[in-house]
Amino acid sequence: MAITAKMVKELREKTGAGMMDCKKALQETDGNMDAAIDYLREKGLSKAAKKADRIAAEGSTYIKTEGNTAVLLEVNCETDFVTKNDQFKQLLVQLADHLLQKKPETVEEALQQTMAETGDTVENYIKAAVAKIGEKLSLRRFTILTKTDNDTFGEYLHMGGRIGVLTLLEGTTDKEVAKDVAMHIAAVNPRYISRDQVAEEEVNHEREVLKAQALNEGKPEHIVEKMVEGRLGKFFEEICLLEQNFVKDPDQKVKKYVSDKGASVKSFARYEVGEGMEKREENFADEVMSQIKK
User: Fold this and answer.
1) How far apart are CA 252 and CA 266, in angstroms?
2) Any bridge partners for residue 158, and if so which?
3) What digits encode the pLDDT tens for the residues 134-189?
4) Apex 145 CA angle, 142 and 148, nearest 5
């Protein structure tokens, strides 16, 4: 049958594939729209496999809450341009919906689960998105938190999702308090809630380092121990949320700010896109040209 421009346009809107690819798919399937979609998906999946060795250290974090459950996730892509793409944004939403519904414990478990909307696995759903968007995509990590009716979540996305923080406060339903704590965490990046969460091994290692520093400074041995304990306090301030000066009011600690609200911090998760990953070094002008050529 004759392939019209209207048919090509419809297929492009449904799949996000290129014009010539859509035209060829319709020709190969004699104008059958559903078969053409399958054709493009199969072709796209083969292309997606070739992208597997690319570096995907850009991306976005995303937070979604549903009832007493909330999820923070990070999805990676190759370039920051893609995060502005509506298809990428939809991917974040649908992955969040799935994680809230199925509550997997690991990324590996999530990838093998079936998505309610598509009837396909999460892994294949992401591969299909790779075919449409044209870049390597990956669900890197997620954290799911559950609360009671007397607790509250705090949500904060910085720079459009470059940093995402999800907090869980007990003893309050004040979302602004929980969000304030989330904003503090985004800015200061603590690793623990309180000092009792820090492993003894880590504390002892820091104590030995501080002791060596003091001795190398020529301090008398009889005062080194007191110096070390004092400096350990600074160490805990750097890594423990409750020990830190609250960013909105540096005259008080986070612990006091929270307790004055009748609350306590039960849990938090902070993701910064691409942290700890190898990042591609690429000339910005070349990156722009590469996007234009696509």
Assistant:
1) 20
2) 163
3) 899 999 999 999 999 999 999 999 999 999 999 999 999 999 999 999 999 999 99
4) 170
CA angle 196, 276, 246 (to 5 degrees): 45
pLDDT digits (tens, 9 = 90+) for 237-253: 999 999 999 999 999 99
Confidence (pTM)? 0.78
Domains of the chain and CATH, by start: 5-50 (1.10.8.10), 58-192+267-293 (3.30.479.20), 195-261 (1.10.286.20)
Cα angle: 26, vertex 30, 36; to 5 degrees:
40
| Residue ranges with strand state E in 43-160 | 58-66, 69-77, 138-146, 152-158
Q: Cβ distance 127 to 139 under 8 Å?
A: no
In angstroms, the CA 75 to CA 122 distance is 13
